[in-house]
Every structure is written in structure tokens, then in C-alpha cells.
From TrEMBL:
Domain HTH marR-type residues, every copy: 18-156
Gene3D superfamilies in alphabetical order: Winged helix-like DNA-binding domain superfamily/Winged helix DNA-binding domain
PANTHER family (UniProt xref): TRANSCRIPTIONAL REGULATOR (PTHR33164:SF95), TRANSCRIPTIONAL REGULATOR, MARR FAMILY (PTHR33164)
Naturally occurring in which organism (per UniProt): Aquicoccus porphyridii
Segments of this protein annotated with the region Disordered: 153-175
GO biological process, one term: response to stress
Full protein name: MarR family transcriptional regulator
Molecular-function GO terms, alphabetical: DNA binding; DNA-binding transcription factor activity
UniProt entry keywords in alphabetical sequence: DNA-binding, Transcription, Transcription regulation
């Protein structure tokens, strides 16, 4: 065991030292995702809102790009095309978005936010911005900025390895 591990991770020491998983990015990213999901769910519950992080991401992207189609939406939020349909179905079922005919491709559905979706977006967004600090509790502002910059850098570097790579609006598919 390295000396820094004894100092940084005393709560994770075992008889043989620090469990190696606590030095693995994949494990720590998974744990941070668990924390993020719990904080998000708790805050939405306090507001009496049934909304998941991916539904919020989709709603935000639909709001930013009215008329976006499902395939482009999937790329915009780095979500796989096979399951984005369920996200869209749930948002439409809640009356937060509408699916209409795409002017560019009759096979595609153009997605737009409804007035109810806009009202919900306006209501929850300040809370979602605030809960980011709860997700990164234990870090000061400089550390939060550093972590976010490093997360962006590493996710950009590994983007093509993802089963659902992020596609910016001007890459590949168009809305």
C-alpha cells in the first residue's frame, strides 16, 4: 500500500491495506453517479416532481433545439438510440413534450417542449443547479472547477469508446 493511500483513504483500509478499487477511476465514477442520482431523486421528491436526470437532459435539449428528432436527441445527450424512445415516451406521456412530423424527414418525429414542459423546466432548473454543489460536497470551488474540467477532458477523450457517444448538433446527424 502506498503511503498516500493510507492518508487519503483511511476509512477504506482492510487487513491487507486499502482495497484497490478505491484507486480505480471506474469505481469512483460509478460511486459519484450513485451519489448524483440519489441527490437528484431526493431533490425532485422534495419538489413533488417525477423527473430523472436523463429526462431533464432530454427536456433541456428539446427546449434548446425545438424540432430535434429522437436520433439527434440521443446523440446530443449521449444516450443510446435504442432506449431514447422510452425517455421520449415518458416525457410525452407527462405532457412535457410534443411529437410532430419533421419537415426534413417524414419518417422522423420533431420534438418540441410544451408550455407545461417549459413551466416544469423553469421550476426545477434552479434546484438542479443548486444540487450540483451537494453532489460535489467536500470540494471547494477551485476543486469543483478542476474536477469538472478533468471530467470534460476525459469524457471528450473517450467519447468514441462509449456505446452512446456524444454528438454535437453539427456532427453526423442533423435535426
Amino acid at each position: 500500500m502506498y503511503a498516500y493511500q493510507r492518508l487519503i483513504f483511511p476509512q477504506w483500509q482492510t487487513e491487507t491495506g486499502v482495497n484497490e478499487i478505491y484507486s480505480m477511476a471506474g469505481h469512483l465514477v460509478r460511486r459519484l453517479n450513485q451519489i448524483s442520482m440519489a441527490v437528484f431523486s431526493e431533490r425532485m421528491g422534495e419538489l413533488g416532481v417525477e423527473l430523472t436526470p436523463v429526462q431533464y437532459a432530454a427536456l433541456s435539449s428539446i427546449r434548446e433545439t425545438p424540432g430535434i428528432d429522437q436520433a439527434t436527441l440521443a446523440g446530443a445527450i449521449a444516450y443510446d438510440k435504442a432506449t431514447i424512445g422510452g425517455v421520449v415516451d415518458r416525457l410525452a406521456g407527462k405532457g412535457l413534450i410534443l411529437r410532430g412530423m419533421s419537415a426534413r424527414d417524414r419518417r422522423a418525429r420533431a420534438l418540441t417542449i410544451t408550455p407545461e414542459g417549459e413551466a416544469l423546466f423553469q421550476r426545477v432548473t434552479p434546484h438542479i443547479r443548486t444540487l450540483q454543489n451537494d453532489i460535489l460536497s467536500g470540494l471547494d470551488d477551485a476543486e469543483k472547477t478542476q474536477l469538472l474540467n478533468l471530467l470534460r477532458k476525459t469524457t471528450d477523450a473517450g467519447n468514441t469508446r462509449s456505446r452512446a457517444p456524444l454528438r454535437r448538433h453539427n456532427e453526423g446527424e442533423s435535426a
